[in-house]
Amino acid sequence: MQNQDYYFTQKCKNTLQFLCSALYHQLSNRFLKIFFHFDYCFYCVDSNGESFESCIGMKIEEKIAELKNKNIDILKIPKNELVNYFIAQKRYNKAEVVKKIDDNEIECIKFCDFLDLTYEQQYILDLSELAKCKIVSYEGGFFVYYASPKGATLNEVTIPPEFDKVNFFHNWAIKNHCDSLISLNKIILDGNLTHLNSECEKLDNSEIEKIVDELISQLNNRRIIAISGSSSSGKSTFSLHLKSAIEKRNLQCEIIPMDTYFMNRDERPRDENGNIDFESIHIVHTKLLGDRIDKLINGESIPERRYKYVEGVGGDLESSITLDSNGFLIVEGLHALNPFFLNELKSSKILKIYISPLIPLSIDGEKCFDPYDLFLLRRIMRDFNERMYSPQRNIEWWPNVCQGKEKYIFPFLKSADFFGTCQLAYEINAMSCILVPLLEKSLSVNNHSLSNEILQEIRRLLFSIKRFNYIETEMIPNLYMKKSFSSILYKVMNMPYCSLLFFSFFFLSLIRDNL
Question: Distance between CA atoms of 137 and 307, rounded to whole angstroms?
Fold first, then answer.
């Protein structure tokens, strides 16, 4: 996927969300809520939970098709005027978001008489360029499917297999008052973070115990656990939690990260242009990994392995792994559900788990936080900490990561036995103390090689995470996160200019949060 294709797809998604909201209001005089983003579709419900007309989705789809000769406008509106506009429409959550924006004039998008915030997102203004969409009614709402990349036909229109799990997590978030950004920020301001963290941990433990119960009910039958998910989805952390839960039942569990079986960089196959596809399953020694897993399950020892990212070289270590006859093996990696790998195993009795951020978060009562942004923000933090990669480098590479998911992960989601999440409800609040100065520094770098798309992405991400109330690192109740984030923050603060940016952000946050 070329970068332009990726950004075009994002513009299509943003534009379709806005048009669906505008047309729903035009047809019903009510407001639409984007409930959750899935892969190449998003799910919508009425913002007040009212029932849809049975044909509303079809009407919106027909109207979108009629807009090929129309345009939408981007304009700036004075802050006070915009607050009053949203209050007059009883869009109170959106008015609260506007109040927290520092600018005196705020960028908005307009179609007919319908206004919304752009959130620094990019849109297709000439609707003749908009890709096709398909709207399908489902369980009191509707899915909007869009094509990717530019010019491609729509993917197979099916209900996302993780939909029920997203609903489950949504109900949990409502119960714990963290289903919206306003409610979440209030928890931070009121000092109730410890209680929320406790509920998050209970949720994680409950979900993992369900998996362990399933494994033990089939003891000696399903001993291999394949855990897949996108880059920075939380596969490694989830695997460690699952391993710990299994060991508490007095059973052995070992983990093999598929990354440790990467080919050496100079051995990797290249395409016709001489480029390496770093997301491809074909840069993994799948046959070697499959043979060793079979040996391990049969009671033989295998060498541990490590891959050095900086040098681009992997190899066996002197230490080895052996598995008890009733022990479990977790194989975690991007490609853990890919049949190309699974077919290398003699056993077909494998428990398949897909990990992704699945807790919906409403930003303003109408828009929701995109889980892909959480993937990207986690990756920016991780790669800065472990590999000293700049945010610019990660954002530049991100379209390739998304292409890798579309090609190597997305087709196999339906095969998953469990959908899990490795996500703390307040995670973005905690990350902001690191990400804001890091991204601000990226904007201050005088780098003429950066494209407009990358600069715009940095601005968009900054705008997004600044909506979250800031948590000081020492106040993070999750001990693992606190230790990890403290280490990263130390590195960030030792970058030139970042200390000043950090304290400026912290001071402005205190003022804003007490307005």
Answer: 47
On whether residue 387 sits in a domain, the answer given is yes
pLDDT, mean of residues 69-80: 95
Question: Does 502 reside within a domain?
Answer: no
Please state, in angstroms and rounded to a whole number, the distance separating the CA atoms of residues 158 and 348.
Answer: 26
How many CA atoms, within 13 angstroms, populate the side-chain half-sphere of residue 73? 9
pLDDT tens-digit map of 155-197: 668 899 999 999 999 999 999 999 999 999 999 999 999 999 9
Q: How far apart are CA 382 and CA 399, in angstroms?
A: 18
- The upper half-sphere exposure of residue 389, i.e. CA atoms within 13 Å in the direction of its Cβ, equals 20
CB atoms within 10 A of CB 220: 8
- What integer pLDDT is reported at residue 504 of this predicted model? 47
As a whole number of angstroms, the distance between CA 488 and CA 470 comes to: 16
399's CB contacts (< 8 A; 6+ apart) are 1, 2, 3, 5, 6, 7
Q: What tokens were used for 13? A: 């998604």
Query: Are the C-beta atoms of 185 and 361 separated by less than 8 Å?
Result: no
Is 373 within the bounds of a domain?
yes
Domain with 372 in it: 161-425
Q: Report whether 34 contacts 44 (CB < 8 A).
A: yes
Q: How many residues does the chain have?
A: 515
Q: Which residues contact 6 (CB under 8 A, 6 or more apart)?
A: 149, 398, 399, 402, 403
Q: Which among 88, 123, 92, 96 is positioned nearest to 107, based on CA atoms?
A: 123
DSSP state string for 456-470: HHHHHHHHHHTTSPP
What is d(CA 476, CA 469) in angstroms, rounded to the nearest whole number? 13
Question: Using CB atoms within 10 A of its CB, is residue 295 exposed (0-12), middle (13-18) or buried (19+)?
Answer: middle
- Residue 255 in any domain: the answer is yes
Closest CA to 378 of 187, 231, 167, 201: 231
- The string of pLDDT tens digits covering residues 169-179 is 999 999 999 99
Q: Side by side, which strands form the sheet with 224-228?
A: 253-257, 328-332, 224-228, 350-355, 418-420
Look at the chain and report how many structural domains it folds into: 1
pLDDT category of residue 508 using cuts at 50, 70 and 90: very low
Q: What 3-state DSSP class applies to 71?
A: strand
CA angle, residues 367, 370, 372, in degrees to nearest 5? 170
Given a contact cutoff of 8 angstroms between Cβ atoms, the answer to whether 155 and 40 are in contact is yes
State the Cα–Cα distance between residues 167 and 184, nearest whole angstrom.
18
| CATH of residue 414 | 3.40.50.300
Percent of the chain with pLDDT over 70: 92
Enter the tokens of residue 200: 């998050």
